[in-house]
Amino acid sequence: MLNRTGKFLSVICGTVLAMIFTTGCGSENPSFSILPDTENFQQSTESINTKIDILWVIDNSGSMATSQSQLASNFQSFIADFESKNFDFQMAVTTTDAYLAHPNWTQFYNDYQSVQPTDHAATYDNSPQADKSLFRDGVAGTYSGVSIMDKDTPNLSSVFQTNILQGIQGYGDERAFESMRLALDNSNNNGLVRANSFLAVIILTDEDDFSHPGFWQSFANRGFINDNTDSNLDSIDDYITYLDGLTGSTDTKKNYNVSSITIKDSACKDSLDNTFTERIVADRVLALAAATSGKQGDLCGNFADELSDIAENIITKANIFFLDRQPIPETIRVVVNGSLVPNLDTDGGSEGYNYDADNNAIVFTPGAVPPQGAQIAVNFDPVSLDD
Predict the structure, then answer these.
(1) pLDDT of residue 226
(2) Percent of the chain beyond pLDDT 90?
(3) pLDDT grade, residue 120 (50/70/90)?
(4) Is the confidence at residue 30, as pLDDT, over 80?
(5) Angle of helix 283-291 relative to helix 176-185, nearest 10 degrees?
(6) How many CB atoms lie within 10 A of CB 369?
(7) Cα 66 from chain centroid?
(8) For the chain, does the N or the C end have fewer beta carbons within 10 angstroms?
């Protein structure tokens, strides 16, 4: 017999009652039997989210030359898995002073260029204020001409290096969170965040985020806040709410995360303070990464390792498979392209999947994430027959 979804139900002694109960042969107690309900997934842009959109938020202040160079030269450690699994990815770059595009900063923008035109002409490229929140394709006369990179971008590594090297003439009042918002909200940047995509934001900075409502009043009063615990700073929850709305996320299904490469502890800070003493442990940036299940990379670590870890985290979070019905966990079988995937809870090993009961989802380890176009079947006995 077939149920409404076209799946076979087994019948005991040929008697089928409502709710699929059957009467056992010569037994006084009713019994029932159900063949596994099945969730079938075709990993493609039509039915499963394999689109990954990445925004890099780059600190372009005076102390960031080495960190930008490390990021550029280790790019292959980040992009390798995206390319090997043929994911549909896009990338763009903004800076930690992109918030200066906001109209509140018009007086500052105009006055700052006139007061220090020699030092800061390259920062603003003699362009209109609104252009500060455009995705960056280079700086100071060196441009790639590609503001949104993707898997089909020719010479991707070279283009990425040009785009990511944003120089060190940027404004030293770093506001990574608000810059992220201004760049993502700029209508001229349309095309990065796609429908049904996973958005990954990656912040590179040796400071913290100081986003707050303060704006330019006079050249002597620049609105700086130097204390990352100041109550005037925008709350981290404000930006979580913003990203939830932008990506259509819910409490149980997040379509984004924020990762970082920052100063994580005093040991790293102390090792860097021999040249720039204004550096700080990035408590707010680290907190946003933790709240969104992002990766907290170490500015003092090995950049190749840090970037590889961030990439694995993004790929894993972007390929979580949510089930429509609650399964009996021990009955779950996950098959990819005809091969059974190990259940790490019962089979052990280092690569396979776990069942996330809190979110009713299948979570693959990085090495077991199916490639683009894979056939995925999740078979299980449901806890309930209710839809």
Answers:
(1) 79
(2) 58
(3) low
(4) no
(5) 50
(6) 23
(7) 24
(8) C
The span from the CA of 350 to the CA of 342, in Å, is: 9
Single out the residue of 49, 54, 311 nearest to residue 200, CA to CA: 54
For 230, residues 6+ apart whose C-beta sits below 8 A from its C-beta are 212
Output the DSSP codes for 349-382.
SSSSEEEETTTTEEEE-GGGPPPTT-EEEEEE-B
- What's the token pair of residue 183? 């760049």
3.40.50.410, 3.40.50.1010, 3.60.150.10, 3.40.50.2300: CATH of 51-318? 3.40.50.410
**Identity of residue 360:** N
* Spatial CA neighbour of 94 closest among 143, 55, 145: 55
pLDDT in tens, 155-189: 999 999 999 999 998 888 899 999 999 999 999 99
| Domain locations in the chain as residue ranges | 1-35, 51-318, 321-380
The position carrying tokens 């200066």 is 100
Whole-number mean pLDDT of the chain? 83
Q: Is 270 helix (H, G, I), strand (E, B) or coil?
A: helix
CA-based end-to-end distance of the chain = 19
Instruction: Tell me which DSSP letter residue 343 carries.
Output: B
Report the candidate in 300, 292, 316 with the shortest Cα–Cα distance to residue 261: 300
pLDDT of the residue at 114: 61
Report pTM. 0.85
Question: 336 has which bridge partners?
Answer: 339, 376
Give the three-state DSSP class for 323: coil
CA distance 65 to 222: 24
Dihedral sign (CA 42, 44, 47, 53): positive
Residues 255-278 have pLDDT tens digits of 999 999 999 999 999 888 766 556
- Tens digit of each residue's pLDDT (9 = 90 or more) over 185-222: 999 998 999 998 999 999 999 999 999 987 655 445 55
